[in-house]
Every structure is written in structure tokens, then in C-alpha cells.
């Protein structure tokens, strides 16, 4: 282990993540699939365990002691997310199942209600499928037109193309903050300003951002922002949609059912106020509570230290991978997160994934739910090592050794 990287005591941090200490094929695991999902620190499942063992109960429904305790813990997370994102009000925080559901909520509720035939929706060539398909479905239904900002061979958005595509017809820009397959950090603040100047709203897909850098929705001035708990060291099955209150107030509900109503008769139903209007049915109570613990944990590590550590891992990894003959990195943006996507000409990524797995190393191989990115580079798939602050340079060395072995098998 490399021990202290910058100001961060990685050895100590790693003790918080029991999952980092398992063996795979008799070797200590190297976990480099953090863009798919991060590991969870002990405090997250302890918080969930505490709920299940001591006050498991439904929320917002009973006045009995346990339900009140569960409701208080559930709502405390909403307050934590509000502070975490620097939202103006906790009612702007909607709990969903994850980024995918958050984007679908906006497409369904805002899109179906407010967008019409001929309106343009602008996305980019580097979007995750979850920020492409909901808009295509909406376009099919409403006659809207989907426009796509291209990127260059470094994996950077072509800003002039963005400016050209942004017109008075653009009603919504839905843009990824950090690309999961390229690592590119997009200039979202500048793009939001430009979109607003044209009268368009902006949704930010922050799935890959929230675990790596501070995200401030008031500073960005985005209209909507989506993320998933499981990429922020929290549980699966829970995520967040942030939306400006004045927009969320205007939007019709997404799902109908319990908890989202004010009153129900067969003649007329009225809806609850924010945020409950968008939280129909029993939510993922334990997971929301776990997300609160994850946020506390990340903030205790601190984004300054996280960013510094991950940037030094990225620099080290970018250099170290060059030792593998023929290896080509996919994605070389100047502003880049710790994602190392690569190809080894002549070797299928699945063979790479299988062989490095034999060495106890977990990387991702495939299209990473970004098939248009693969098409841009003319490859069916890449191998991807995505790093987090609990990773070390020694682990990167092990990946390089494993890839050198792959080269021996496939010279
Ligand atoms: N957007 C990006 C950039 C992602 O990386 C992912 C997950 N890989 C998603 C959206 C979808 O997240 P989820 O599957 O948690 O809804």
C-alpha cells in the first residue's frame, strides 16, 4: 500500500471498507469498478441495520414512536442532501430509485407537460443511455427533436458546436457532468449560463460527479440535477432528483398512489405539496437512511482531499499504463476524472477483463452504457479502470503487471 497520499491516510480509510479486504482467486482484491458502483463504508450499513433492528417502520404514516423515529431519520437525510448540494430548500430534494429514475421523472413530468412538437432537446454524444433513451421516448411521443453535441478525439465537447446547436428552439439541455466512459469533466456551469441566456432549462446528470467533487446547485444554477446513492458510497435503490421549487411546483406528479396526495375522492384528487407530490408509495426507507450516513462519511473525508488524491492517482495511472505495449487510452480530456478507459489492439476487452480478474482485479469491460462513445472511437467496447480515493498506486502497479501478462498471452 502506498500509505498516505497527499493529506489522506488511505490505509486508515481502507479499514472503513471491509469489501476492499476480500480475496479473489486467492489474491487480494483490487477494486477498479467504482464508476459502476462504489463500495460502502461500514457506517452505511450500520445505519441501515440500526433502522431494521431498532425502529423498522413505515414513514409519514403513523404517530407511533417507531414510525416517528423512522420519519425523522428519513427526513434528516433530505436535510443532509439539501446541505450537500447547497439547495435552497429541502423540499427541492426528491428521493427516487437513482439517476435513471430521476431523469425519467423529468422527461415524463416536465417533458410531457411542457414540451411540444418541434421543441428541441439538447444532449451530448457522451451521455449514458439513461440520459438518451428517456428523451428519445419523449421525442417519439411529443414530436420534439433531439440534438446532439459532438466531442473531439480527446473526448472533449466541441464547445463551438454546442453554441451552434443552442438556439431559441432549444427548450432543454440535459448534460452529463462527468462522463463514465471517458472521465471528461464538462464545463457545465458555463453551459448552463449559455443555455439560460437562450431560455433553455438545464438538467445535470451528476451520477459520476457527486462522489468526486463538491456539487453546488446554486452555484451551478442548474434547474434539475440527478444522482444515485450507490455511486456516492451509499446503498443501491435510492437516488435524488434536485429541482428548483418553482419548476417542481408547476410539474404534474410522476407516479400516483399513497403519500403523494392531499385528499382523494372519486370525483377529484388533490396532490400533496413538495417534495411528497413526487414520492408516491412506501419509499426505500433504510436506503435513504444509509444515504444520509454515506453523505456524512464523504464529507468527513472532505472533497479537497478526495480530489487531490484521485487526481494524483489519475496522473500516476495514466503514466503507468503507458508501460503496456500498444495500450491506447480512450479519453484524454484536459479536465478529467480518475477514469482510465483503454484498448489493447488485437485483444478483446472481455479477454482482458477475464485475465485480469484471474489476478484478483475488478475492471469493467463493455460499452459502459455509452454505445455512441464506442461508435465515435470505432470500437465495440473498452476496458475501464475507474478509481476512487481508497485506491492506491500499488494497486495500479498490479493492474499494469496483469496487463503485461495479458500481452504475453496475446502478443
Ligand atoms: N449517468 C451516468 C453518467 C452514469 O455513470 C450512470 C451509471 N453508470 C447513470 C447515469 C445511471 O445510474 P443508475 O444506473 O444508478 O440509475
Keyword list:
411 residues, alpha/beta, Aspartate Aminotransferase, domain 1, Aspartate Aminotransferase, domain 2, 2 domains, seven-stranded mixed sheet, four-stranded antiparallel sheet, 14 helices, 40% helix, 17% strand, disordered N terminus, binds 4'-deoxy-4'-aminopyridoxal-5'-phosphate
Explained architecture:
There is one protein chain. With 411 residues, the chain is of the alpha/beta class. 40% of the residues lie in helices and 17% in strands. The strands form six sheets. The chain has a seven-stranded mixed sheet, with helices on both faces. A four-stranded antiparallel sheet has the order 15-16-19-18, with helices on one face. A two-stranded antiparallel sheet has the order 1-2. Helix 3 crosses helix 10 and helix 11 runs parallel beside helix 14. The longest helix is centred in the first third of the chain and has 21 residues, at 65-85.
Amino acid at each position: 500500500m502506498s500509505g498516505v497520499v497527499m493529506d489522506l491516510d488511505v490505509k486508515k480509510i481502507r479499514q472503513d471498507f471491509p469489501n476492499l479486504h476480500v480475496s479473489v482467486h486467492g489474491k487480494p482484491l483490487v477494486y477498479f469498478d467504482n464508476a459502476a458502483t462504489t463500495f460502502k463504508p461500514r457506517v452505511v450499513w450500520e445505519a441501515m441495520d440500526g433502522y431494521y433492528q431498532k425502529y423498522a417502520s413505515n414513514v409519514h404514516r403513523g404517530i407511533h414512536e417507531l414510525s416517528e423515529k423512522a420519519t425523522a431519520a428519513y427526513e434528516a437525510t433530505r436535510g443532509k442532501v439539501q446541505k450537500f448540494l447547497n439547495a435552497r430548500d429541502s423540499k427541492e430534494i426528491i428521493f427516487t430509485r437513482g439517476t435513471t429514475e430521476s431523469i425519467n421523472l423529468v422527461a415524463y413530468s416536465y417533458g410531457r407537460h411542457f414540451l411540444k412538437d418541434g421543441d428541441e432537446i439538447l444532449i451530448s454524444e457522451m451521455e449514458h443511455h439513461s440520459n438518451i433513451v428517456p428523451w428519445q421516448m419523449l421525442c417519439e411521443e411529443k414530436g420534439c427533436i433531439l440534438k446532439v453535441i459532438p466531442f473531439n478525439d480527446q473526448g472533449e465537447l466541441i464547445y463551438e458546436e454546442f453554441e451552434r446547436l443552442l438556439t431559441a428552439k432549444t427548450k432543454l439541455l440535459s448534460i452529463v457532468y462527468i462522463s463514465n466512459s471517458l472521465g471528461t469533466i464538462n464545463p457545465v456551469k458555463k453551459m448552463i449560463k449559455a443555455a439560460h441566456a437562450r431560455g433553455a432549462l438545464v438538467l445535470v446528470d451528476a451520477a459520476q460527479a457527486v462522489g468526486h467533487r463538491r456539487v453546488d446547485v446554486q452555484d451551478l444554477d442548474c434547474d434539475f440535477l440527478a444522482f444515485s446513492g450507490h455511486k456516492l458510497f451509499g446503498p443501491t435503490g435510492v437516488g435524488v432528483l434536485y429541482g428548483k421549487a418553482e419548476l417542481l411546483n408547476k410539474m404534474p406528479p410522476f407516479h400516483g398512489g399513497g403519500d403523494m396526495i392531499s385528499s382523494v375522492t372519486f370525483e377529484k384528487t388533490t396532490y400533496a405539496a413538495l417534495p411528497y407530490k413526487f414520492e408516491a408509495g412506501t419509499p426505500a426507507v433504510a436506503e435513504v437512511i444509509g444515504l444520509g450516513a454515506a453523505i456524512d462519511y464523504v464529507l468527513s473525508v472532505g472533497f479537497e482531499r478526495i480530489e487531490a488524491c484521485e487526481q494524483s492517482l489519475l496522473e500516476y495511472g495514466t503514466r503507468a499504463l503507458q508501460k503496456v505495449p500498444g495500450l491506447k487510452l480512450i479519453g484524454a480530456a484536459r479536465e478529467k476524472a480518475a477514469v482510465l478507459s483503454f484498448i489493447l489492439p488485437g485483444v478483446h476487452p472481455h479477454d482482458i477483463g477475464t485475465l485480469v480478474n484471474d489476478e484478483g482485479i475488478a475492471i469493467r469491460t463493455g460499452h459502459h452504457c455509452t454505445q455512441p462513445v464506442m461508435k465515435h472511437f470505432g470500437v465495440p467496447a473498452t476496458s475501464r479502470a475507474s478509481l476512487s480515493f481508497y485506491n492506491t498506486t500499488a494497486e495500479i502497479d498490479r493492474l499494469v503487471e496483469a496487463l503485461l501478462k495479458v500481452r504475453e498471452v496475446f502478443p
